[in-house]
Amino acid sequence: MTRSSGRIWSLLFFVTAILFADLSFADIYRYLDKEGVWHFTNVKPNTRYQLYIKTPEKKTIAEAIGDYDRVIKQAADRFGVEPMLVKAVIKAESDFDHKAVSVKGAKGLMQLMPGTAEALEVKDSFDPAENIFGGTRYLAMLLGRFNGNKELALAGYNAGPEKVGAEGRIPRIPETEAFVKRVMEYYNSFLAGGK
Length: 195
What we know:
By secondary structure, the protein is mainly α. It has eight helices and three strands, in the order H-E-E-E-H-H-H-H-H-H-H. The protein has two domains: 3-53, no CATH class; 61-193, Lysozyme. A three-stranded antiparallel sheet has the order 2-1-3, covered by helices on one side. A hairpin with a 5-residue loop joins strand 1 and strand 2 (38-41). The longest helix is centred in the C-terminal third of the chain and has 20 residues, at 174-193.
């Protein structure tokens, strides 16, 4: 490998590391060899390598909730939904990661599908305030449709309101059953803890 091709590969690695730094979960170390080539790794093999990119520490649930507490309260007040229920949905859907994307394409804190986001006039599902207001509005609509029954509303949030409405109960879909159970556990936990 020539010195220039080594530099090109190092530069490509550097650019890739920067672009995907937000997606990674490891520190990045580097060192410059005597040929002028940068070497990068996520494991520090020896003292030649120095810390280059530090992975931010994951926030606690209380810190994550605190980041969005004001917006959750505003959205909950506007649409008449309990703030603890909104928090429980966010915890179950994205674990308070506003950049979360599901394998099905749902995005943001409350994991809005593109069609749902469009219907709710959410232009940027990764914007925490837009996502929370859109998701809370949708949750309020579902609570209204299912006469305040939280479990049916949550099932509708996960499986679609038509499916729940047609069956008149939580559909026997393992993912939906697990989602409803998980959200209700978070909801009860948040109520008990006051956060």
